[in-house]
Design a protein that fits this description.
Low-confidence stretches: none
CATH topology of the largest domain: D-amino Acid Aminotransferase, Chain A, domain 1
Bound molecules: adenosine monophosphate, glycine
Strand content: 25-35%
Shape: globular
CATH superfamily of the largest domain: ATP-grasp fold, B domain
Helix content: 25-40%
Distance between the termini: 47 Å
Number of domains: 4
Number of strands: 22
Mean pLDDT: 96
Number of helices: 14
Largest sheet: 9 strands, antiparallel
CATH architecture of the largest domain: 2-Layer Sandwich
Structural class: alpha+beta
Amino acid sequence: MKVLVVGGGGREHALCWKLAQSPLLTKLWCAPGNAGIKDVAECVTINAEDVPALVAFAQANAVDLVVVGPEGPLCIGLADALVAAGIKVFGPSKAAAELEGSKGFMKDIVSKAGIPTAWYGRFTDMEKAKSFIREKGAPIVVKTDGLAAGKGVVVAMTLDEALKAVDDMMGSKVFGDAGDELVIEEFLDGEEASFFALCDGKTALGLVAAQDHKRVGDGDTGPNTGGMGAYSPAPVVTPLREAEVMEKCILPAIRTMAAEGKPYTGVLFAGLMFTQAGPKLLEFNVRFGDPECQVLMARMKSDLLPVLLAAAEGRLDQVTLEWRDQCALVVVMAAEGYPGSYKKNTVIGGLDQANAVEGVTVLHAGTALDDKGQVIATGGRVLGVTAIGDSVKEARERAYQAVDSLRWPEGFCRRDIAWRALARDA
Ligand code: AMP
Ligand code: GLY
């Protein structure tokens, strides 16, 4: 089978790395890919959001399956354009991708489906939003309706913070059009985890859970990022809780989306808060998490390709998946300054030594090759040093041993990935 993966981050390197191991694969492309992906796939210089060029490439090369990594192309209709051209795609339609593209839409679906979640209100009027906040009190959470690169969320501990968030998002438009509408919701307290399920429009196949580390600094301090590290399994998500999440969150969402005429195909990412009252849904995303995907792929024993194809073809009920018992952990290496401004084009050395550490695969996120063939950093999040081990402790030791054999003075990472899991074991 000929497969095209769309995207060029750590998540897409993980997907390509896993797909490249499939005996069913005859050719793998990635658009646009990165310096690590080129070791397992042929990179093509097409932007992930250039829908006409991606469709033309898939047609010209008789691609059997397109796997879309990021939400951006899905929200502008890449899957619809591919299906219209007769090409199979793993990823939701534009209408179904609204689950991530509009938080208001997501909350309405979640509420219709009866999924446990925070109470909320949707607002296009600044004064009404502020009255709602005054009525409910703090702590309270203010979110832009539209995509804001993961930054359009303010967890306000005081009334003033919440009112200022409304002014910034709707008044000053710091996130542009994303702030035309706001969602204001209940603050939920508990432990967060991510759960993933593959969907084919009618049914869903649960994957496993992972825990991400969103803050830039050790001890969960500093500004939010796209994710500085992850591990799986997530001890907070016991097998019993996984079954509860499938039953109460994933399957009702799939049924409701189908009933709304927007059947959901692809991977559904549930951001969950495990509160004292049980799991509550924070949000749905329409893609794999990054860096959660890296640990999911490291733990998946089954061949990924036939499973993604089954999802695209509506045959998920015929599929089962096997997982390794081992733990997987990823440490993200970012360019100094991230998530603020950072230097680009610094040279990264020691990749071979890092990859030689037992159980370790260095997945690339923001990298390219310079004209001397050296790997250089081109993004904020640059590498995902991924390790498996018999325990989370072993996986972590291996990952940090690999981190320490890299030569990249302009890079940094968190030193406490998986602290929650280790604290439980202690
Ligand atoms: P989101 O983009 O909706 O996932 O929000 C980003 C982060 O904000 C989440 O990962 C949580 O840590 C936090 N957050 C979002 N919604 C809530 C909520 N209702 N209560 C508490 N924290 C939240
Ligand atoms: N790591 C969180 C996300 O991908 O949204």
